[in-house]
# Entry
Amino acid sequence: MAILALELMGFFFGLIGMLGTLVATLLPYWATSAHVGPNIVTAVVSMKGLWMECVYQSTGAFQCETYNTLLGLTVDLQAARAMMVMSSIFSVMACAVSTVGMQCTVCMDGSSVKTKVAGVGGSMFLLAGLLSLIPIAWKTHEVVQTFYMPNMPASLKFEIGDCLYVGLASSLLSMLGGGLLSASCCDDIDGNRGSRRHYPYPERNALRGPSHSMTYQPAALHSTTNPNITNKTQTLNSHTSSSPHSIQAQDSRKMARQNTAAGYDVTGYV
# Structure
């Protein structure tokens, strides 16, 4: 039961991490303009992401412009794109693989390979979390370092955006979920999971002992439970035991009758 709860927790943590990674990858809130120094005009807010730059005006207008070129981008931005996309792909694959290998599913039920599939899904969650953590930590360091540069104009300084916080939490959740799923696979070392236990009754197959078969016992052995059967059995036994004597008596009577008849005939003729 504890292994089932561990797998469910790991799967849900990984699922939340996957959703957070997708949100952080698509939204442009990686860096927002900082209103410091002489730049105190808050009518316009600039935002930068992996795929576009957006401007939000106080009038409610929201405009975005995607990056027109790929090779003209900086190396760190290209690497961040690739890692976040790969992290999203690995997260989706980890969800699919973990669903097959968990105890609460019937896919590959009874197979010894099923115990290892959950561990493979957990490893993929770990890899996805690591891939998303690297560009997020890289971009956070870059934003903080640029903000504290003394020669940088205030209009070009940015603060940490919401997507960096979401991405950091998502990567940690993905790694935590992957660790829980991988830990649940370690139960296979003890040899107790040769065949998966069925959900929602994991206790039934927890200890697989030898099967006990009920042997048939005749009705005479149950004399204490059914007195009628006992009386019938005793009567039958008494008849059976007395049957040889009754047969002997009948034979002797037949012989006596035959002798009497023979004597009567002889006497009559004489």
Q: What stands out?
A: The longest strand covers residues 52-57.
